Structures are given as C-alpha cells and as structure tokens.
Amino acid sequence: MKNNLLQLFNQGSRNAVIVVLLAFIIYSCRTANDPTNPTDPSKGAETYNAEVALKWSEMSLKLIRQSPGFTPPVASRALGYAGLAMYEAVVPGIKTNRSLAGQLNGLKTLPLPETGKEYNWAASANAAQLFMAKNIWSNAPEAVKKTADSLATVLRASLSESSSQEVIERSEAFGNEVAKAIFEWSKTDGGHEGFNRNFPADYKVVIAPGAWQTTENGKAIPMQPYWGKNRTFVGANASMPMPPPLPISTEVSSPYFQQYYDVYKKNISLTQVEKETSVWWADDPSETFTPPGHSYNIARIAIKSSNATLDKAVEALARTGIAVADAFTLCWKCKFTFNNERPYTFVRRAIDPKWIPFWPAPPFPGYPSGHATQSSASAVALEAVFGTDFAFVDDSHVNRVRDTKRNVDFKARSFKTLWAAAEESAYSRFLGGIHTFQDNDTGLKEGRKIGQNINALQWKQ
After folding, report:
1. Which domains occur in the chain, in start order?
2. Who has the most CB within 10 Å: 66, 323, 411, 444?
C-alpha cells in the first residue's frame, strides 16, 4: 500500500510540472501587442480614432501644394514614404498586422518598441509624421513648416490628456526612430530631392518618328525623364515588363491613326458634363495637390466616411502611398522607354494643324497614362481595406473657385466603387484631349497589377 501511494504521488508531481511548463511556454509565446499579455500595458491601435492620421495626411497634401518642385512623380514618392512611416510607427500596436520591414526593396529592418513598455500609438504616428514633413519636404516654405510644427504641438497636447509624459516621450522617440530609418532608406532610391531636377538639362530628347515633342506648354525638356530608374517599393513591381504601344502610322486605316482620331473627334464635341469630368480629375500641380494627392485624398475620404480607427487608417494610407509611388515610377519607365507622342502632336501633323486640346498636354510622353496607372493601383490597394463595393462621394475640389476659362464648376462626384473612380479618372484624360484609349487602357491594366502586388505583401499576421 505504501509503495502504491508513493507511486501516485510521484506521478502527480510529474503532471504538475508538465502543467507549469506548458503555462510558461504559452505565456512566453504571446506577442508584444497581445492584449492579454500583462507585461504590455499599451492600448491597441484600434482603440484610437483616426484624427492623427487624417490631420497629418491633410498636412502632407498641403505640403505638396505649397512646396516648390513637387510635380506628380515627386509628390507620389513623398506620399509613399509618409504613408509608410505612419504605418510603421503604429503597426506594433495592431495585433492583426505585421511590419513591412524585410518585405520592401532594401528595407531590411526597422526599430522595435521596448517589450513590456506602454506606448501611445497615436503619439508615435504624430512624431513620425512631423519628422517626415521636415525631411521629405525639406524645401517647404518656412510658414508651412511652422504650420506642421503647430499641428504636432496641438495633437501632442490632446494625446497627453490620456497618457503620462513618460509614455508620450517614449512613443515619440519610437516614432522618430522609425521615421528616421525610413528616411535614410529613401535617400538611396534615386529620387531623393527630386524637386531640384524636374527638367534636367543633360537629357537628350529623342528624335524619331512618333516620338514626344514639345507641345503648347513650350517645355523643351520633358519632366523627370530619369524617374523610371528609381527603386520601387515592391520588388515584384520592379520586374514587371513594359507593354509596347501600337506601331506608329499615319495611314488612315491604321489602328494607331484611329486612336488619335478618336481623341480629336471627341474633343471638338464635348458636353458640359464631359468638361466637368475632365477638369475635376485634371489636378493641375500648380493649383492642386496633384493626381497622386487626389488618390491619397480618396483614401482620406474612405477613412472618414467609414469611421475607421487608427489601425485601419494607417494601413489605408500606407497602401495608397506605396501604390501611387510605384505607379509613377513604372509609368515613367514605360513613358521614356517608348517616348510616345501626345495627341496634340499627332493630330496637328496628320489631321488638323490648328487643333488645340481642351486641356493642355503635360510636358512628357503620353503612353501610358499616369492618371490611369496611379488611379488603378491605388483603387486596388484600397479595395483590400474597404472592399470592392465601397461607395463614396469625392468632394476633393468642391471648395475650388469656378474655372471661368472652361466654364466649369467643381461639383462633388459620387461613385459606387473605388474602381469606378479609377476608370473615370482615366477616361477624363481622353476627354481632355491629352490621352488615347490605348494610353488609358494600358495604364488601368498595369496599375491593377501594381496594386495586386502591393496587396500580396504580408500585411497580416
């Protein structure tokens, strides 16, 4: 009997040890942002509203408008890094998501928060965005820089009401470290301070049949001819082949001729509604936040209309920023691979020598359409966050003064889906007389691939 009792006691002890070991293993495997982990007192990013994300994305658009040299390609790059920095400053607090470090081109590692310490993720994002505002937009006017400083101060004061000074300072330090690492990485992509070289004097304009020529804007050198050599954010996008345009021909029966004739025929018979569509999406860099800024603003609209919290907001802005950045890099690569002429040039030499398009032709090759490429890429990227049937109202330009030259008011536009907005953005360039159908169709197709490659990254745990 005594031996049997001893045997049961030993067996019970072993079972107890096993239970303790299992508990220890489970406890040790909890992630730092696991809300059940008592060593991590931070609130998850989903508990914060999107105010910081919305205020800073609005500031980024203001910086684009008011900083010299922020042409569409340069602006797209800025939004790519700003959106990424915001996301990476918050992602440790998003229990469902993971960092893009190790997934993007050349971005191997990023700073990590201290284990077991409390963080205010909105404060982290606030600090990261202030750093990017001062460094990506380093040539911004002093008045705008002061506005950015003031925004950071106001947000900090608000966030300090719910967190101690120690937590705020720790969070800000982390946000700064993340932003600094991303900014240092940005310097190696080929586009650093691109605002200083929009029209490089050393570029030799291609002279060949069907090649781009100076249009009514008078620019002898095209905008950012080397931009397509920049590093993309996503490796898969860098390896995308460049689809060739139709063979050049002035034969009336040729598909090439028909492409340009369709532009001419439509442009001389525009309805008032078609004029409004063209002008709404024009996003003239001298008057607006540029086409990539329009896409970034659509992300902001989606965030506001869906009452998204901070976690969803930063993911939406990161996806959109990367989408427009890679879209402009690849679109420009294609533009300067084929140097395809604008409708202005072809129509005047082969159809009507006095024709002037409804909208002035931008100073760079036509194929493919930058509007179509970036609108498509950003729409697909945003679909991963808000769905393929997300309806919204685009009010991006409702406060603009009437365009008296073209007799057009700026009225908000409603869309049943994000993709519908991308298609209208592309079509608007045909209505403006500056892009053919092949420019737009190719841009939409290539942009969709870019967006799909972005969505294929491992965003989730």
Report:
1. 45-186 (1.20.144.10), 202-455 (1.10.606.20)
2. 323
